[in-house]
Amino acid sequence: MSSLKILFAVRSTNNFHHVKSIVAALCGRGHTVHALFDPRWSKHEGGLGAVREYKKKFPQFSYEFSLRRTDRWSTLLFYTREILSYRRYLRVRQGRQSDYYKDRYEAYLPNFFRAFLRIPYAGNFLKTAFFGAMLKMAERIAPSDKNIIAAVRRFAPDFFLASPVDLRFASSELEYLKAAKALGIPSAVPVASWDNLTTKGLIHVFPDMLFVWNDVQKEEAVEHQDFPRERIRIIGAPMFDEWFSGMEPSISREEFCQRHGLRPEDAIIVYLGSSSNMAEDETWLVEKLRDALDNCSDELLQRTQMIVRPHPANAKIYEKIKRRNVVIVPKDGDLPDTTQALQLFFDTLYFSSAAVVGANTTGIIDAMVMGKPAIGILTGEYGKTQEQTKHFRQLLEADVLKLVRNTEKFPAAVHAILEGKDEHREKRQQFIKRYIRPRGVETPAGEAAAREVENMLRNC
Fold first, then answer.
1. Res 91: pLDDT
2. With a cut of 50, which residues of the chain have pLDDT below it?
3. Pick the CATH number of 5-71+143-237+439-459 from 3.30.110.30, 3.40.50.2000, 3.50.50.60, 3.40.50.720
4. I need a labelling partner for 147 at 20 to 30 A (CA). Which of 59, 349, 396, 405 fits?
5. Domain 247-436 - what CATH class?
């Protein structure tokens, strides 16, 4: 196929991490990709560093910051989209999702609407088809922003991509998608993360095609987003493509330990921190797990060291931990989006014996792709974001975690892994084949997405 011009609107430079393998595949196939990032959400220097790195690597890649909608329709669309996204949680079948996410979304709604929700039977009215149709009418009658239309016309793309388009508080990638649809430009949205379709907002403007990770996400798109089944394509999980690229440790174990204040002769385990949405402050759990190791009778476990890898948006909570055999790497948290940051994450997992998950984090999948056994710490404090959460239940149902429901039993779980007992290895491999690389372990998701783009244009 001849070279294509692809316009790719992404919410922020941080979100580029989720889709950059698609950009690499498109550029590798000879196409031109121009990315647009909403300046309101692109304030993290690390995310911008990853974008600059890609620009140096791929001459066909370029980027700029997007325009924001500011016309008279913007306020109406903001409110109707937010309320429709909240309404989705009310309409999910009972027992299919924890109320935690509904309550979380409600907290961000405008004050006037939260007051309305306190009226008896207001929730029942919200679920009606009549109320939904009234709100959706705003999207149908509101024209695309004329400045964004003009910007898309100037670039004159052959194809338009946008991601993630369904996060709280409006961002420009949705407005660009609306403009692309108005101009008749073929479009697709790659799903950004494993819980994007179920714990975020609605996709208010449907693209021509939705690229999902696996058959589970395909069903989620139909159930939670009302997306037409025939317009869904399974590509795999682009954000994990780099883990399959044959990475190697950048330094020796001795040098790694020296840099981070660890002893190379003793075992290392990694605690993968959660976002504040999943666990606001989980330092108490880190302390209890460390206490359990320190107080057991096994000297090997007492000497086992813990690396805490903070979630990039929830790192400051760990500043108060001052414990022997506990180090924070990196101290300020970091996305594995640049080559250097990804290498540090790889080295951290490579030199560990296990990845320990406290509450709920995508990092567990990174560790599984690397072949690392994972211990799942289930606690009553995080019940709403663990066993009651759809995407975390996928891990439980797939039986990929060594589960610990009592921190006092944590040392025994670590001991078994240090002895080489890994009864979940085969289940992890099956999980990767089904959830991460459903089109074949050797087929990158980014490459699958690029092929789907080309196939769509051939069939137009």
1. 85
2. none
3. 3.40.50.2000
4. 59
5. alpha beta
Which tokens is 92 given?
Answer: 């999910």
pLDDT at 312 (0 to 100): 77
395-418 tens-digit pLDDT: 888 899 898 888 899 999 999 999
Q: Look at the block and give the residue holding tokens 């089109």.
A: 439
CB neighbour list of residue 170: distance below 8 Å, 6 or more residues apart: 69, 74, 77, 78, 81
Question: Hey, which residues does 271 pair with through a beta bridge?
Answer: 308, 356
Q: How far apart are CA 454 and CA 237, in angstroms?
A: 19
Contacts of 152 (CB under 8 A, 6+ apart): 7, 160, 176, 179, 180, 183, 185
What is the CB neighbour count within 10 angstroms for residue 272? 25
- Name the token pair of 342: 């990804």
Do 85 and 166 touch, CB atoms closer than 8 A? yes
**Identity of the residue numbered 26:** L
Q: How far apart are CA 408 and CA 410, in angstroms?
A: 5
Region for 95 from its dihedrals, namely left if φ exceeds 0, alpha if ψ lies in -120 to 50, beta otherwise:
left
* CB-based contact 168:22 (threshold 8 Å): no
Round to whole Å and give the CA distance between 242 and 240. 6
Residue 164 has φ and ψ, to the nearest 5°, of -95, -15
Q: Global pTM?
A: 0.92
* Interatomic CA distance for residues 329 and 305, integer angstroms: 13
